[in-house]
Amino acid sequence: MQPRERLIFPLDVPHKSAAERLIALLKDHVGLFKVGLELFVAEGPAFLQFLTATARVEYFLDLKFHDIPATVRGALARIQAGARLATVHVDTGRESLNPAPEVRGSGVKLLGVTALTHLTADDMEAMGLAREYARDLPKLVLLRAGIARAAGCDGVVCAGTEAGAVKAAFGPEFLVVCPGIRPAWAAVPGDDQRRIMTPYEAIKAGADYIVVGRPIRLAPDPVDAADKVAAEIEQGLKDRSGA
Ligand code: C5P
């Protein structure tokens, strides 16, 4: 796998034409495009068909399902070929995480979202989480990663700060995808991410994929920024294998 193939770029834009521009610009510089709530609500499944049939790229369908088992399974079963990754919140419960056979048929890999990277220990405690977990987010993420794995998920989404613990506990095959990535050279105005790491740090810690949005999208030269992230990924891979 080329280093850039580990770079996931979120198409966090409000409409298709903005997404099309970014796809044309970055297609050869990132590994996978991510479709999240903003673009999906704006453009719907037709945009996913556009990605597959016209842009000819696979995508990460990051809709972070969180609902009762029947609703989540129904949504998972409608995922079409072309989606390489999809997400379900782990705290939606074990039964909702258990993927329907039809979903496996489409070839999508399912990731459990453990604890969003904008949340801090204070946020978790304020929402009623036991202190033992709120004050020790790697412990919470490990607990939820175990639930995701037992339910049949292919991996998890977690912060780079937790990637090493998940890899150590669940082995190399269980995918770790890390958002909340902030290169040292990129400033994001009004940033909402909290549990952050650089691309180099997250990959070195064991992430299989990193999600990098605003540091690339808002850069004066997004192609150059993506290439710089890929170079950090390459260095992180070298250093983690001791090469
Ligand atoms: O790099 P940037 O902060 O712009 O990336 C934002 C993207 O990361 C959004 O698409 C958001 O949905 C995603 N994200 C995620 N899981 C988190 C935090 C952010 O998938 N825990």
The pLDDT mean sits at 93
Number of strands: 8
Bound molecules: cytidine-5'-monophosphate
**Backbone CA Rg:** 17 Å
Pairing-aware structural class of the strands and helices?
Answer: alpha/beta
Low-confidence stretches: none
Q: What's the story with the biggest beta sheet? A: 8 strands, parallel, barrel
List the secondary-structure elements in sequence, H or E. Answer: EHEHHEHEHHEHHHEHEHEHH
Which band does the percent of strand residues land in?
15-25%
User: If helices are DSSP runs of H or I spanning 4 or more residues, what is the number of helices?
Assistant: 13
Shape: globular
- How are the strands ordered across the major sheet? 1-2-3-4-5-6-7-8
- Percentage of residues assigned to helices: 40-55%
- Ends apart, CA distance between termini: 16 Å
Quick synopsis:
This protein is of the alpha/beta class.
Describe this structure in words.
With 243 residues, the protein is an alpha/beta fold. It is 47% helix and 15% strand. The chain has helices spanning 16-26, 37-43, 45-55, 69-77, 94-97, 101-105, 121-126, 131-134, 137-151, 160-170, 199-205, 214-217, 222-241; strands at residues 7-10, 32-35, 59-65, 83-89, 109-113, 155-157, 175-178, 209-211. The protein has an eight-stranded parallel barrel, surrounded by seven helices. α9 (137-151) crosses α10 and α10 runs parallel beside α11 (199-205). The longest helix has 20 residues, at 222-241. The radius of gyration is 17 Å and the shape is globular. Cytidine-5'-monophosphate (C5P) binds at residues 10, 12, 34, 36, 62, 116-117, 157, 179-181, 193, 211-215. Cytidine-5'-monophosphate binds next to α12.
